[in-house]
């Protein structure tokens, strides 16, 4: 998905990165806001989630679950987000489950999500 705001989204990620590099506590919220924003390009959302994971693994897992559950996001990005959520088994389970039950997702991606979900255990 390409929008006319792509440059602004990239600027938001760069700003969040700068906050993280300076040790600002606002960095986590900046990354989280981008990651959960459905109006932002899929790959930019995932990039923000990765930045968040470097600061706060649990918050990143929640944001990644949000990306994985978003049916408007590319299937492979959804799977990558779910895998990034593995830092918190509860959020990872929700993320993999959302992909597994979505009939609109490619069968190969659904199968991989089901395998990952099974590895998480009960």
Say what the CATH topology is. Serine Threonine Protein Phosphatase 5, Tetratricopeptide repeat
CATH class: Mainly Alpha
Largest sheet: none
Structural class based on helices, strands and sheet pairing: mainly alpha
Distance between the termini: 35 Å
What is Rg?
14 Å
What is the H/E order?
HHHHHHH
Strand content: under 5%
CATH architecture title: Alpha Horseshoe
Number of self-contained structural domains: 1
- Binned, the helix content reads over 70%
Give the rounded overall mean pLDDT.
Answer: 90
* Silhouette: globular
Total beta strands? 0
Ranges with pLDDT <50 over ≥5 residues?
Answer: 1-6
Q: Can you count the helices?
A: 7
Summed up, what is this model?
The protein is mainly alpha-helical and 122 residues long.
Fill in the keyword field for this structure:
globular, 73% helix, mainly alpha, Serine Threonine Protein Phosphatase 5, Tetratricopeptide repeat, 122 residues
